[in-house]
Amino acid sequence: MATLIAHADISPVEDAEVLRKACKGWGTDEKAIINILGHRNAAQRKQIREAYEQLYEEDLIKRLESELSGDFEKAVYRWILDPADRDGVMANVAIKKSETDYRVIIEISCIHSSEELLGVRRAYQNRYKRSLEEDVAAHTTGDLRKLLVALVSAYRYQGDEVNARLADAEADILHKAIKDNSFNNDEVIRILSTRSKAQLNATFNRYRDDHKTSISKDFLGELGNDFQKALHATVRSISDPHKYYAKLLRDGIKRFGTDEDSVTRAIVTRAEKDLYQIKELYYKKNSVSLDDAVAKETHGDYKSLLLTLLGNEGY
């Protein structure tokens, strides 16, 4: 369930005019920008961008980039883009970091549906004139490269059918690889990157039943390297996306000052989908509401936008 409170019966032309006024003259009216964009869904935001360009022969995104700054600018930029294009941009930023942020690639590959992932790959290619797969391959090495390229290239079956015998067999394959410390076994990558989510969850459940522990914990071990951490993130994002995002938000908030990107990413990408359930789980796990945590650790227009997307403007 979404947290975005999108207003119905809006006029894209009127919204474009308000945004134009907010960006003209001395200073920028950030509150007006939040009041408009923070209450528009993806289809409405696209209509506003198109109306703005028709009215003023100017790209609204570029105008906002020039007017805004800091974490607020990054959040507005990610929010106003079409979802598939936004994910492509976030993937590119993650890939180009000195150490690739594999979590972003895993989220896009494993939490999205097959059609959504395909849309991101198309948007990426359209924007950067290269494929997402080739850029992931070019900026990673070794076992991590094998895993991420396999995940981002996947087109999983989306149905609910499960083969119980196959789940038993592949749970055994995964257990043997973990027992032998053979985390980079080709079979591990094959299973995680090709099986449907329903089939994988059956396999993970069989593993837990047989070994009285979760496979994600066993992948990580006591001193997990980056590849093991990536395997851990892959399993968590497939098995329980809400729990994955609740932990991503908790860790990002604990590290504020260095990891606003994770908090922005989680809120911006899930506000139109399932952020309500993520908020509920966050409270259950941390005994503090996500709204309160964000309000405490952020400030200014950045804080106002995040709280608006969280469905709470009472701060």
From TrEMBL:
PROSITE patterns: ANNEXIN_1 (PS00223), ANNEXIN_2 (PS51897). One of its GO terms (molecular function) is phosphatidylserine binding. Keywords: Annexin, Calcium, Calcium/phospholipid-binding, Metal-binding, Repeat. GO terms for biological process: response to cold; response to heat; response to salt stress; response to water deprivation. The keyword Kinase does not apply. The keyword Kinase does not apply. Ca(2+) 1 binds at G25, G27, E67. It holds the Pfam family Annexin. This is Annexin. InterPro entries: Annexin (IPR001464), Annexin_repeat (IPR018502), Annexin_repeat_CS (IPR018252), Annexin_sf (IPR037104), AnnexinD_plant (IPR009118). GO terms for cellular component: cytoplasm; plasma membrane. Ca(2+) 2 binds at I253, R255, G257, E297. A pair of annexin repeats may form one binding site for calcium and phospholipid. It comes from Parasponia andersonii. Belongs to the annexin family. Ca(2+) 3 binds at A295, T298.
